[in-house]
Design brief:
heterodimer; A: mainly alpha; B: six-stranded mixed β-sheet; four-stranded antiparallel β-sheet; 10 strands; 36% helix
């Protein structure tokens, strides 16, 4: 992966330079946006509900035992908003959407469709990369907002129904509101925006550099997902550190 | 490569092409070893040679998809490579596989150049697309997906897509590979038709002997990255080099 970092940064830079073309590519952006949303929304909701539930289940009883029942809402709320929703959703999107992007662009590369675009003086970055990166950068933060809300709801349901906690729904959200501020949610959403760009650029880069036949496409898909996840985790730390200042 | 133009529908006359001392290596392996050739305006020039002889790589250099290690390529006497020259001349490549975009319909594929460069309004693009498809003998395929077409139809759609650019030179990469004899003849006739109708310069890379001798004004035989001979079909047939003769007359050995 590290030998490709320079190329990935270069592709990101070229995509930024292509931004003035975004309006011309708006139809493709909308198509990609709805594809990402449709493919992921149900999965995002399911995953987030259970993540919220399991966080409440793990921390709730221990906190209640130490007479800290009023901290459960805050702990679950913060964990989901600042960390779990952005990271888990980015990983989910890397697996679901990043892999599809790398496979589609990779197969276009292998079957000379990208060469055909070049012979027609159509820039593959404008035509393929830009709409995908914009769509994923718009869709992932939105999905993360959904994820945070559903995750909180999942945590609240479990905290209410679990016999070791029995924290009423209303009390859970009141406690959550005491600890979680708008900035915490905004930070999580901002992180997800950065992760979306990582997934989009890494996956498109992997697709554009695919060589060989079907095996090459398979290799590109695997590398797109693995490299995206590694970079998400590394950037998660760096961004969290930066946002703490 | 082509730059978008708002040119009229009038087809410009074909251009000349000169290749001088072209060299290219991949990973230390010489693929093109000093290629020299000249293609005259409006002629059909066929480059023949066995698989792996460097034909397709040569074609990619001509359209700008590869950069040579040494040598130069001149179109109408001007070196290719600079954006000004690319903008001045229109060249199209018909890929061996057709290279149609599988996610687009046939109509969208053929009109892609015009749509992406916003050269015409949508209704006008539809009219041009249907006209170009009819030019290559295809009707009622505009809304089909490339996966629904036969190999021969895909190649004809690829030719229609090339025609939309209003090219002054069309490069064909193995236009009859994987086609049955009837489809091969249809494609060959299409190449001849285009020469007659729009006086486009055609450069065909192929190892199909029937196609080469059926359509070519002149033929070059290439092997191991070098040109062995260039001449009219008769001159090439009578060329006494054993490699050329072996390529032209290779046949099965059946016991009578």
């Amino acid at each position: 992966m590290f030998e490709n970092i320079g190329d990935i940064v270069l592709l990101f830079w070229r995509t930024l330079l292509a931004l003035p073309q975004a309006w011309r590519q708006r139809q493709k952006v909308f198509e990609q946006f709805f594809e990402i949303g449709n493919a992921s929304l149900l999965m995002v909701c399911m995953l987030s509900f259970f993540i919220g539930g399991v966080i409440a289940l793990n921390f709730g009883p221990a906190l209640v035992e130490r007479s800290l029942a009023n901290a459960v809402g805050g702990v679950v709320g913060l964990a989901i908003a600042k960390e779990l929703a952005p990271v888990m959703m980015a990983i989910l999107i890397a697996g679901r959407i990043g892999s599809a992007m790398a496979a589609e662009i990779g197969s276009m590369r292998v079957y000379q469709e990208i060469d055909a675009l070049r012979t027609m003086n159509i820039n593959p970055i404008h035509y393929l990369v830009l709409p995908r990166v914009i769509a994923i950068a718009a869709a992932l933060p939105l999905l993360v907002v959904f994820s945070i809300l559903v995750g909180w709801f999942g945590g609240a349901v479990v905290a209410d129904m679990n016999s070791h906690m029995e924290i009423p729904f209303k009390a859970f959200f009141s406690d959550l509101k005491d600890l979680v501020v708008f900035k915490d949610v905004a930070n999580g959403v901002f992180k997800s925006f950065c992760f979306a760009i990582i997934v989009g650029v890494v996956s498109c880069h992997q697709g554009l550099t695919t060589i060989g036949g079907p095996r090459g496409i398979g290799r590109s898909v695997t590398k797109a997902v693995v490299n995206s996840i590694v970079l998400i985790v590394v950037f998660d730390y760096l961004l969290t550190r930066f946002l703490m200042q | 490569m082509n730059s978008p133009t708002n040119s009229s529908n009038n087809q410009a006359a074909g251009v000349s092409l000169v290749v001088k001392g072209l060299h290219k290596s991949f990973g230390g392996q010489k693929v093109l070893d000093g290629i020299d050739l000249e293609v005259r305006p409006g002629e059909i020039f066929v480059i023949m040679g066995p698989s792996g002889s460097g034909k397709s790589v040569l074609l990619k250099h001509l359209i700008g998809l590869e950069t040579p290690d040494a040598g130069e390529i001149l179109i109408n006497g001007e070196p290719v490579g600079s954006p000004e020259i690319a903008a001045k001349y229109r060249m199209a490549l018909v890929f061996q596989s057709g290279a149609l975009l599988n996610s687009l319909t046939v109509g969208e594929n053929v009109g892609l150049y015009l749509t992406e460069h916003r050269l015409k309004p949508p209704a006008e693009i539809d009219r041009i697309v249907s006209e170009k498809l009819e030019d290559v003998g295809l009707k009622d395929v505009m809304d089909k997906m490339p996966s629904e077409l036969s190999g021969g139809m895909k190649k004809r759609v690829a030719i229609a897509r090339a025609l939309v650019i209003e090219p002054q030179m069309i490069l064909y990469d193995e236009p009859t590979s994987e086609l049955d004899p009837v489809s091969s003849v249809i494609i060959g006739n299409e190449i001849l038709n285009l020469k007659r109708r729009i006086r486009v310069t055609s450069l065909v890379v192929s190892h199909d002997r029937d196609l080469a001798f059926g359509v070519a004004d002149r033929i070059a035989v290439i092997a191991e990255g070098k040109i062995l001979t260039i001449g009219t079909p008769d001159e090439v047939k009578n060329f006494k080099d054993p490699q050329v003769q072996n390529f032209l007359h290779a046949d099965f050995k059946r016991e009578s």
